[in-house]
């Protein structure tokens, strides 16, 4: 009851909270991160547009690493298991996270995905292939060590400026499909690099082609610097 | 699209707070959204209007305070101008995001009996 006059009206009380709205996701992400650290698994959140070449990068990574590192993949997909099947065919352990209509993965989905990958603690690298989307996945921490964004040369030079949130959070950008550059005279790698420097405080980009293998060695080298993998890993040049 | 899942999380927080305080209704919800938080304020409002029907927030207005992105030199050389490379022009250190990634429930106004 109103304390001032006893009229029966409710009191209106302001309550200051200042809480992150995604605090529950942040907690789940911290939990995942602790798991990954305890098991010495490097977790990589691989993001990018639909068709940017995320799955092709994973296939090329599998070819380049061969038996030198154990790699698992949690593949987020709206409706199909196509990506997970491709990744398994490339020799990696993969489990699918079907998101239905959801446009991103969250930390809880990743946690549940781990339950379906019982051998995940034996991995050197766990890739989480996020849903193809340059907006929503950037908002959710999954507990990963690093964010890697695949950007294909066909998407245009200005994508970093159009999607600053995604690129601001990237630890590395893989500029994919560079074998197509001869067909795209208007696309300049230097311009993409300049645009990244406006949205990424530490702009790191590796141009590569999963098809020809160009740049893959540099990517594998970057991966190997992430951690000291449990198995001794050698940088592999041959594809 | 993820604005719907953000509003779902927002409602979980509001309901937990309202329950803890014995509130009968929420009058006002105040959130802070950063310019580069990756949240579209229009979609957030649409999602909020859908979610609040038949809830404790049925008659609660949603106040959204937007926060401009601000990058600054970690070495104390001040802010980096918008549209420029994110390195300090004085010391070349990578800039640090000082504001603009907020997705925060700031304050509620609750009706308590």
- Sum up the overall morphology of chain A in one term: globular
Strand order of the largest sheet of chain B: 2-1-5
Second-tier CATH architecture of chain A: 3-Layer(aba) Sandwich
| SSE arrangement of chain A, N to C | EHEHEHEHEEHHEHEH
Helix content of chain A: 25-40%
β-sheet strand percentage of chain B: 25-35%
- Count the helices of chain A. How many? 8
How many separate domains of chain A? 1
Question: What do the pLDDT scores of chain B average to?
Answer: 96
The structure class of chain B reads alpha+beta
Mean pLDDT of chain A: 90
| Number of H- or I-type helical stretches of chain B | 2
Instruction: Please report the two chains with the greatest interface, counting residues with C-beta closer than 8 angstroms to the partner's C-beta.
Output: A-B, 39 and 42 residues
Major sheet details of chain A: 7 strands, parallel
Q: Calculate Rg of chain B over CA atoms.
A: 18 Å
What's the Cα radius of gyration of chain A? 21 Å
Low-confidence stretches of chain B: none
CATH topology of chain A: Rossmann fold
How far apart the termini of chain B lie comes to 37 Å
Care to count the β-strands of chain B?
A: 5
CATH superfamily of chain A: P-loop containing nucleotide triphosphate hydrolases
């Amino acid at each position: 009851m109103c304390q001032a006059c006893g009229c029966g009206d409710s009191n209106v009380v302001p309550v200051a909270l200042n809480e992150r709205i995604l605090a529950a996701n942040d907690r789940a992400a911290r939990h995942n991160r602790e798991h990954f650290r305890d098991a010495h698994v490097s977790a990589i959140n691989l993001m990018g547009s639909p068709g940017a070449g995320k799955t092709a990068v994973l296939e090329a990574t599998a070819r380049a690493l061969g038996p030198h590192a154990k790699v698992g993949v949690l593949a987020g997909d709206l409706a199909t298991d196509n990506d997970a099947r491709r990744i398994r065919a490339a020799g990696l352990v993969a489990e699918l996270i079907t998101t239905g209509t959801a446009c991103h993965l969250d930390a809880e989905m990743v946690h549940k995905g781990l339950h379906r990958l019982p051998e995940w603690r034996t991995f050197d690298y766990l890739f989480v292939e996020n849903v193809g989307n340059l907006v929503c996945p950037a908002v959710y921490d999954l507990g990963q060590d690093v964010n890697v964004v695949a950007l294909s040369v066909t998407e245009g030079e200005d994508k970093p400026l159009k999607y600053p949130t995604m690129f601001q959070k990237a630890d590395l950008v893989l500029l994919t499909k560079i074998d197509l550059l001869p067909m795209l005279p208007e696309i300049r790698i230097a311009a993409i690099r300049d645009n990244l420097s406006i949205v990424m405080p530490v702009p790191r980009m590796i141009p590569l082609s999963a098809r020809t293998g160009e740049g893959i060695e540099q990517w594998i080298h970057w991966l190997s610097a992430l951690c000291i993998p449990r198995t001794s890993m050698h940088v592999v040049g041959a594809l | 699209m993820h604005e719907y899942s953000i509003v779902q999380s927002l409602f979980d927080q509001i309901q937990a707070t309202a329950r803890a305080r014995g509130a009968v209704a929420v009058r006002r919800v105040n959130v802070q959204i950063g310019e580069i938080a990756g949240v579209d304020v229009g979609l957030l409002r649409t999602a909020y209007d859908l979610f609040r029907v038949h809830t404790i927030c049925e008659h609660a207005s949603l106040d959204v305070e937007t926060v401009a992105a601000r990058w600054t030199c970690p070495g104390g050389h001040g802010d980096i101008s918008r549209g420029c490379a994110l390195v300090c022009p004085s010391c070349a250190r990578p800039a640090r995001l000082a504001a603009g990634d907020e997705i925060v429930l700031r304050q509620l106004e609750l009706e308590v009996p």
